[in-house]
Amino acid sequence: MAYDFLDHTADVAVELSAESREDLFAEALSAFTDTVTEVDHVHADQERELEVVADNLEELMVEWLGELVYRFDVDGFLFSEVSDLAIEETDDGSLLLTASAHGEPYDEERHPLKVEIKGVTYHELTVEKTDGSWRGRVIFDV
Question: DSSP letter string over the chain?
Fold first, then answer.
């Protein structure tokens, strides 16, 4: 596991680390699901193609996690892993994240709810390359 949960007043803060920026966003998916329920209990039985766009990496992280919040709230779907995650710069200079995310519909018997995430905040948000690896911090509004 390349993320740690931090003590934070009324919210859930997560420190992320990875070798690449794509892996950092993959870790964020795992951290999101592990905040909601036990990520190990979510089977990767179904695949969904996800796509988000933003002007910079911090905004891309918020959009990415916001998409996961949306998929859980509206579709009742949880993801346990991701493949083919790519981040590309578009012709207009924005960043496009595409990924195949794997998971299954939420089942309250197998996926006991830890907390309900309302959204992703910009407070103390970071996504940066340091000493050859990537680090990030995100705070979930619960």
Answer: --EEEE--TTEEEEEEEESSHHHHHHHHHHHHHHHHS-GGGS---EEEEEEEEESSHHHHHHHHHHHHHHHHHHH-EEEEEEEEEEEEE-TTS-EEEEEEEEEEE--TTTS--S----EEEEEEEEEEEETTEEEEEEEEE-
How far apart are the C-alpha atoms of 92 and 106, rounded to whole Å?
Answer: 37
At 10, which CATH number? 3.55.10.10
- Count: domains in the chain: 1
Could you list the residue range(s) of the whole structural domain that residue 61 is in?
3-141
- pTM for the model: 0.91
pLDDT (0 to 100) of residue 10:
63
What span, in angstroms and rounded, lies between the C-alpha atoms of 141 and 119? 5
- pLDDT category, 11, cuts 50, 70, 90? confident
The pLDDT tens digits of the residues spanning 111-124 come to 999 999 999 999 99
